[in-house]
Amino acid sequence: MKENKRFVRGNMILIYFLSLTLAVTAFPGVLYAASKTKPAAPGGLLANGVKGDIVLSWEPVNKADGYEVYEKKEKELNFYRIKVTSSCKLVLTNRERGKKYEFKVRAYRAGKGKTIYGKFSKKGTTTVAQNGTSTIKNFLTTALAPVGSTMYIWGGGWNEENTGAGKDGRRIGLNPAWRKFAKKQKPGYNYKKYRYMRGYGLDCSGYVGWCVYNTRKIKNGKSKEGYVIKSGEMARSLAEKGLGTYKSASKVKDWKAGDIMSYPTHVYIVVGSCKDGSVVLIHSSKKGVTLCGTPGRTGKKKSQAVKLAQYYMKRYYPGWYRRFGDCERGKDYLTCSAQFRWSTEAGREMSDPDRFLSKSADHILKELFQ
Q1: Long-range contacts of 71-80, Cβ-Cβ distance < 8 Å, separation of 24 or more
Q2: Residue 251 C-alpha from the chain's centroid
Q3: CA atoms within 13 A on the CB side of 39
Q4: What is the pLDDT of residue 309?
């Protein structure tokens, strides 16, 4: 009986493999199609107008054979395919000054006689400045790119010697490892456990340095390039490079879009001010890169800026907000910080065609997220 059972079982296995062989021979496209599912939409699309050029970057899609890049110029009705590439970075030269451009990217996989396309990325928008290197809006759009997907890593963005910008501080575009690491983190995230794990996130100086680099450059930098410096020195350092003006903390009277505020233990970027005197800001702090708000001029904690930060984080970054929803910061953010302000005079570093410097935080955020 045992020998008979063994014989039956062996025949069943043989029949199974013969059936599988026949199926593959008769219907080869079935298994091929299953292995060639649609690629995902590229994430992290960032478009930056730098002088007369535009630099595009996005995060790679798993098993993609390449990407199609589409462009729409201001006043045009449709997007047009302008490039097919295997790279995740692209520099478009000689774009028209003073014009707004929109982009979208999709990945593809090459099949046998058929190309399989994925969904388009979210649109990336930038303006090629009429004068200067870039615009205030471009700078803030860049600053928003890592929000909700990049953890605070002590030493993130710095080189190994802690003397300046490392690879991430001189990187064009987002590092996909930032998002991958952030997705795994829980509400109790403690940055002290991840000190100097470079490549997985950014600290406050690394983050602001990355923002400045991506607003002014079109390719990855060399070892001594970049803008990462100690937080307390950043405002003065940028002014000394001729990029704008500097004010000590005691002389700061207002906070405008794009201002970089620095003191010995922290540095952040201003989105804009509110009627109650509170300020909406973007920074990398405690948990990671996020929008926050300061108290108002009377010291009220539930200020207009805090409510705005909570609203936009909850609506546009719900996963992050559920885990790390703290959007309040103290009054020392206003009283202890020196200020760097971009030069916006004609032909200087930045232009402001969107008039962000004269707008309140609520109007600025509405335009940034529209």
Answers
A1: 71/101, 71/102, 71/103, 72/101, 72/102, 72/103, 73/99, 73/100, 73/101, 74/99, 74/100, 74/101, 79/104
A2: 32
A3: 26
A4: 98
Exposed, middle or buried: residue 307 (CB in 10 Å: 0-12, 13-18, 19+)?
middle
How far, in Å, CA of 349 to CA of 369, rounded?
A: 24
In angstroms, rounded to a whole number, what is the distance separating the alpha carbons of residues 266 and 337? 9
pTM score above 0.85:
yes
301 within 8 A of 277, measured Cβ to Cβ: no
Q: If we measure between CA atoms, which residue out of 39, 47, 63, 179 comes closest to residue 104?
A: 47
Tokens describing residue 198: 């470079």
pLDDT tens for 225-281 read: 999 999 999 999 999 999 999 999 999 999 999 999 999 999 999 999 999 999 999
100-110 and 66-73 as β-strands: parallel, antiparallel, unpaired?
A: antiparallel
Structure tokens at 48: 């930056």
| Residues in the chain, overall count | 370
Q: Taking the alpha carbons of 202, 211, 140, 43 in that order, is the dihedral positive or negative?
A: negative
